[in-house]
């Protein structure tokens, strides 16, 4: 495991924990936050899997898929 992976995993866990604390009693949202954090950690540990998922969805590279998801998520958050 590289240093950047450790740093990214720590960040994802911190953000996931903060999200769980901020969501209060909404169990479904808290579980979704934990699931997304777990998925983030998985993709940090196994980055080649993003390419596998991207190809299954018809996108060429895993990096492109993550960019598209970030754009959609950002737009949703702004709205």
Beta-sheet strand percentage? under 5%
Q: Regions with pLDDT < 50 over 5+ consecutive residues?
A: none
Classify the secondary structure makeup into a structural class.
mainly alpha
SSE series? HHHH
| Counted beta strands | 0
Amino- and carboxy-terminal Cα gap: 37 Å
- What is the count of helical runs? 4
Morphology call: globular
Radius of gyration from the CA trace? 14 Å
* Largest beta-sheet details: none
**Overall pLDDT level:** 92
The residue fraction in helices comes out at: over 70%
Provide structural commentary:
By secondary structure, the protein is mostly helical. It is built from 4 helices and no strands. Helix 1 (3-22) packs antiparallel against helix 2 (27-45) and helix 3 (48-57) packs across helix 4. It is globular, with a radius of gyration of 14 Å. 1% of the residues are buried.
Looking at this protein, list some descriptive labels.
79 residues, mainly alpha
Kindly summarize this structure in a few lines.
84% of the residues lie in helices and 0% in strands.
Topology, pairings included?
Elements: H1 3-22, H2 27-45, H3 48-57, H4 62-78
Helix pairs in contact: 1-2, 3-4
């Amino acid at each position: 495991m590289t240093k950047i992976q450790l740093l990214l995993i720590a960040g994802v866990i911190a953000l996931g924990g903060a999200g769980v604390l901020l969501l209060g009693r909404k169990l479904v949202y808290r579980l979704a936050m934990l699931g997304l954090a777990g998925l983030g950690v998985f993709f940090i540990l196994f980055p080649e899997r993003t390419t596998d998922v991207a190809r299954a969805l018809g996108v060429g590279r895993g990096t492109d898929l993550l960019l598209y998801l970030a754009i959609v998520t950002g737009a949703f958050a702004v709205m």
